[in-house]
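Async update (no meeting this week)

Hi team, since we skipped the sync, here's where things stand on the single-chain job. The sequence we agreed to prioritize is pasted below, unchanged from the tracker. I ran it this morning and attached the output directly underneath so nobody has to dig for it. Comments welcome in thread, and please keep replies under the output.
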Amino acid sequence: MVYKPSIGEKVFNLFNILFMALMIFICFYPFWYCVTCSLSKQADTASLMLLPNGFTLATYKDVLAREAIQKGYLVTIFVVVVGTIINLIMTTIAAFLLTRKNFAIRGFLTWMMLFTMYFGGGMIPTYIVYTQILGLEGSILVLLIPGCISVYNMIVMRTNFNGIPTSLEESVKVDGGNDMHVLWHIIIPLSKAVISVMVLFYGVGHWNSWFNASLYLQGTEIQPLQLRLREILILGQTAAEGDAGDVSTMAENIKYATIIVATLPILLVYPVIQKYFVKGVMIGAVKG
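Output:
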């Protein structure tokens, strides 16, 4: 017997399709708007642009030829790669330790980490610690060392580790292995999904980070790409307010081209680890 949906189900399905199409447009259009403005010879930013007004790649050539953008790219790539590696190592070690029942201070350390999720010292005390005590001002380490562990990410990874059968760990120890063997040969190979999600979370966080750089790296040559982008956006806004004709139009086009140049690389990462993403995120929602 062939199932025939009722009129109510058809209307409901149609509503769902239209609603999702609207949501896709709302989410995608801002990015497409930046693309069309960056490729236009004269971007009419006051109108709803669906196609470029003329076509030119001059803005991208101008952006990519700027030494500040090139240096910003190198700094950001270094921070993303090295910072994410540090994050993964520290988060994995912390999550693994908190799953060891024979770890004496497991409960105390867990509560101390949870405490930092709800309470912080504030901007001024943090600034004093970083600059006067740790001496990180003007150093690339200020983008790597602070926040090397996200407590939320650590909890997600710990939950994943807790879900691995203890019989596998016992088999390693029967063969003479220790906790390091358990971590390297059992835990990590069975945690590729959650590790991929951690790479995504930490990598995107480093790529988009600019606030710490604006506080501690002003006037240096190691400013990341997002801070360079912020400066260009401010200069573009200044030029637009000055309304200097072609200069203002060029500044607008360069602003949008810089946004695309700074955004596109990280967007290309999502398809690579998409198959792990949903599985890794749901791990932390099953049990705690």
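Quick observations from my side:
The two ends are 45 Å apart (CA to CA).
The longest helix spans residues 7-39.
Reply here if anything looks off.
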